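Appendix B, example 12.
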Amino acid sequence: MPQMSVRPIIRFAMLLSVSAACLAPGAQAADSAPIAPATGFDFATLERTAQSLAQAAFVPDRGAPGEDLEHIHTYMQYRSINHDINRSLWRREGLPFQLQLFHRGFLFNDRVFINVLEKGKAQRVPFSTDLFDYGKSQVPKGLSPDTGFAGFRLLYPVLQDGVYEEFVAFLGASYFRAQGLGEPHEAVRRYRERGLHQYGLSARGLALDSGLTKAEEFPVFREFWIEKPRPDSTSLTVFALLDGPSATGAYQFVIHPGIDVTMDVKCRLFMRQGVERLGIAPLTSMFVYGENSDRFQDGFRPELHDSDGLLIDARNGERIWRPLINPPRTAVSVFKADDVVGFGLMQRDRDYDHYQDVVAHYHLRPSAWIEPVGAWGPGSVYLIELATEGEWHDNIVAFWVPERRAQAGQDWTFAYRLHFLLDHVRDRGSGVTASTRSGRSETGEPVDVKRKFIVEFESDKLRALEPRAPVEAEVSSSAGRIGKVVVEKNLFTGTWRLAFYFEPGGVETPIDLRAYLKSGKEVLTETWIYQQWKRP
């Protein structure tokens, strides 16, 4: 079975403003000198460093001998260690951004070096226990200035001048995440004033061989260079060096804080060895069950997920919505997407009543949307869904894979804009899928003989249509039989409802269903695609 992309304690850690990521291989060993020159640093410098690094064998870096980190091995011990807020970088200078660092320990033993860039000159941030408040944890011994860190987080006065809030975190392998606030209405403001930081899904620098029968590879951001902000800065630039057994990479992130967080990402990859599946701009999320789940869930919450669907904007103008599922076994779905316009894992459902969670606030979890910059060429969007029984696993992965196989000695360049947001991506005026539900048919057949599906679409244009408007559906399936298709306006919600029966006909493999609404030759909605599995 494929190896799950797992972060075992992530759900609890996020509630307490402690980011977490999967346990992963480390970075190549390094001495106390910066990897890149101390002067004249720029992206071209980092590219040359990554290219040179790719010529050598990968060696994990777990730090220096004699480091006393063994006792920081539980979640509670790690959670009690925080960067001393009074020692935040740039705090005393009154700059618009502040930088805080993550301690090594628990799942995060890889040594990560942090450098500050000022006028092209790099200055490494030395480790010191004085930077941290250890709470109830024992202060470790034998840690030198070259101990390094596990990652970092950025703070910015997002909602109120002078009130600095964490809004971005890089921690664990090549994982990073940001918060999307949506409109700062009073409920969100009160939530933020409680000191809680709402994260959800994560992005990654790179996904290698995800969803295959062999173990997935997790390369590491082994070193960062962070540009010191100016007093008038409204964005912050971060450079990162990626390292792993199969690839190295030079990354640049231009981070724009705000109600929605935007990152302009540029990367150049150098392949140490070939891989079967090169995943570009990967997103990792969690889905346990939702309104579309047709198996009994023994939980007090009606829905449980960070994201509820994959959205794809294709070059031909089609927009695809694929509701997420928690399959009985690993599912890999491939969507042909040459020069893809955009894709993302979205949390569309923002109704608190649909979650009933006063702790995790799943209705406020951000979505993430990828917009490629330039032509990426022939390729496909991959969606990998792994079976899970709990919210502590990130069981959903989505990324773009080039059609050309990644071989040793190759280098690749990609650029994209990454949005963390609460509001929908613009729908181009087309109807979006508001809900997906399915269940046993009313005619009493056994559960796998016939299923009934209810899909509701909404948009301003659909709401304006009269109930007698000539709206019809195109419905198809990769196997089985579709029957009794009905399209009608829901007078209670203003949405348009598609209802149909589906008979799998004894097919054992997963079946893809496809539907959209139209009026004459005019397409009114995005394309709804769903994967139906034989129930266990």
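The first strand starts at residue 82 and ends at 83. Confidence is low (pLDDT under 50) at residues 1-34.
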